[in-house]
Amino acid sequence: MFISTSAQRIQNLSRQFIVSSQNMLSTQLNDLQNLNIDEYVKTQKDSTNITHIKGNCPRKLYELFRGEHMSCGTETIDPKSEVPYHLHTDEEEILFCTKGKGKIFVQNQERDFYPGVMVYVPKLTLHRIVNLSETEELHLTWTLSPPAKVQKFKAGVNN
Known about the structure:
Layout: H1 2-33, E1 49-53, E2 59-66, E3 71-77, E4 82-86, E5 92-99, E6 102-106, E7 109-113, E8 118-121, E9 127-131, E10 138-145, H2 150-155
Antiparallel strand pairs: 1-2, 2-3, 3-10, 4-9, 5-8, 5-10, 6-7, 6-9
């Protein structure tokens, strides 16, 4: 009798869990149907947080998305320019080359950086990107997690 009562309780709990899961999934599907995809698809032209860094190392940073756990965007490095050695105290970073040819330095190691190359940079790790071209820009995407602080990004500060 005890076994059948326990089995019955487990069966009832399983039914409640299934119904609860179905309700939650139904709610999530309804939310997805009301999704405005324009809030999630961005181009450089949509960026409202653009940083133009001038001087010895000219480049442009475009923040395209900022969420609770990450931020991402694009960067364009002028010919014969670079992103000087820097580190991020709180953020890890993923860099992905989309156009051009350069070199990426992580700590004291160097690698070619060209379209299709992805580099993961842990927090507190020195890194630098150099555009080797005399005439063409180097284009890359970047993702920071957690998101970089807005004031640092707007100021062009890289740590």
